[in-house]
Amino acid sequence: MNRIHNSTFQRKVTTAADAVKAINPGDTVAISGFASAGTPKVIVPALAQRIHAARAAGSNFTINLLTGASVSAETERALAEVDGIALRMPYQSEATARRKINDGRMDYVDIHLSHVAQQVWEGYYGTVDVAVVEVAAITESGELVPSASVGNNKTWLDVADRIILEVNSWVPAAMEGMHDIYYGTALPPHRTPLELTHVQDRIGQPTLRVDPAKVVAVVETDIPDSASPLTDPDEVSLAIAGHVLDFFEHEVKAGRLPANTLLPLQAGIGNVANAVLGGLDQGGYRNLTCYSEVIQDSMLRLIKDGTVAHASATSLALSEKGLAELTSNVDFYRNHITLRPQEISNHPEVVRRLGIIAMNGMLEADIYGNVNSTHVMGTKIMNGIGGSGDFARNGYVSMFLSPSTAKGGAISSIVPMVPHVDHTEHDTQVLVTEQGLADLRGLSPRRRSQVVIDHCAHPQFRPLLHDYVQRAQATPGIGHTPHLLGEAFSFHERFNATGSMLP
User: Fold this and answer.
1) pTM for this prediction
2) Cβ neighbours of residue 39 under 8 Å, at least 6 residues apart?
3) Element (DSSP H or E) covering residue 221
4) Which residues belong to the active site?
5) Half-sphere exposure of residue 21, counting CA atoms within 13 Å on the CB side?
6) 60 in helix, strand or coil?
7) φ and ψ at 108, to 5 degrees?
8) How far apart are the C-alpha atoms of 163 and 145, rounded to whole Å?
9) 431, 452 in Cβ contact below 8 A?
């Protein structure tokens, strides 16, 4: 199972405990991983143990942690539980870390995923002291075969002062060739166009480059990726998916989408997105393409039955069943999947050129189409904006999906005004809940409010929302976007006071 084919790197093989001695208190550490896939398996737990021992001895030991997006829950938890993270960027999804962020005990910078590489290159986060990157193999020439995610690994390897590699022999060797690593990006004023005009285009090379002199340790592992949790779609998810599929059919009939093939699809992570993708094989579509961040279980099935011809992403976010399917048929999937750096998978230029249909989740939307996808009750971070803004702002069609209620009906996902805005009304074209679909294209704010309430709000909240709009519009001199500022956050204030947005 030896995957290290270069003698220089073979001489650097060591244990995880010895490797983490290269990480010092106060270091900025960038690790691989995107939606669990490709997260280092042994280095981070060893680092957490080192931090725990230092704290037990009375020393303060924290790092600044940079990633591609979320990493495996156990990895994030291990560092958060020992108070090992001073600053976190750009996305997280683990409960312990989330609680410490909301308690003010961990700094968190939530940014668009397409911006990460540029901001790190520009030095916004100081020097990247150490990169810890999982790879599938090291070639004879010293290049690195990526594992099940690419994320920001190219950038980490380029900018880090010191590098620790985890070579994971669990990753199928046949994944080599699935990746497309582009080395032509540059900072202004030296940028050139990305020559990527079709989802299946390749503009880079299959391996990552690394300066051997910067590699301080190589650790061998044989550990599976953590499976991404996934449950069967419920009635609400299936209803949302049904509205989306009806919309596609309507757009085809209107001549705005190509019949059979649509346009390239992007879908966020989760059961709703999985349900939407899973329903595509019932619409008579063939040879669809997807240009997204992650590939979920439903995508493998669509590829296998021919509904999807090619899918481009930066990571594989698969359940245990999905991981088993991929590893059992990796030779087949390698011809239908391309994994790219996230600065390419989320690149605004490419998203605009390809005409992506963007489908992302939200926590709530207001009656005019502003969307909050990150903050519960306006102040408590949930996960982060991720790549939703990259696709929403630049896609051909921008859709946001959510159940109409949460907490057993105590919370409405349609509110008078969102207390935190991630996506403005200018970036939102379509809202979808299980109640229906609101097509906001070409509508003024006053018309938007009626469509959103009538089509997306839960029936128990519609009278409250209609009453708010009617009183706002009846106020003399109220203006272009009617609001009652004294009541705009009344739904949220009522929930904080009583536990329900209902009176």
Assistant:
1) 0.95
2) 31, 32, 33, 71, 72, 75, 134, 225, 226
3) strand 215-221
4) 293
5) 8
6) coil
7) -140, 130
8) 15
9) yes
At which residue do the structure tokens 């003024």 appear? 444
Pairing verdict, β 28-31 and 85-89 = unpaired
Q: For residue 408, count other CB atoms closer than 10 A to its CB.
A: 7
Are 409 and 401 in contact, with CB atoms under 8 Å apart? no
> What are 436-439's contacts with CB under 8 Å, separation 24+?
436/243, 437/243, 437/244, 437/246, 437/247, 439/247
What tokens does 467 get? 């009453």
Average pLDDT over residues 437-465: 98
Give yes or no for residue 390 having a pLDDT over 90. Answer: yes
What percent of the chain lies above the pLDDT cut of 90? 91
283 pLDDT more than 80: no
Crossing angle for the helix pair 271-278 and 297-304, to the nearest 10 degrees:
10
Report how far residue 230's alpha carbon sits from residue 299's, in angstroms, rounded to the nearest whole number: 13
Q: What are phi and psi of 220, to 5 degrees?
A: -95, 135
Structure tokens at 187: 């900072």
Residue 1 has pLDDT above 70, yes or no: no
Q: Are 423 and 440 in contact (CB under 8 A)?
A: no
Three-state SS at 340: coil
Q: Which residues pair with 436 in a beta bridge?
A: 433
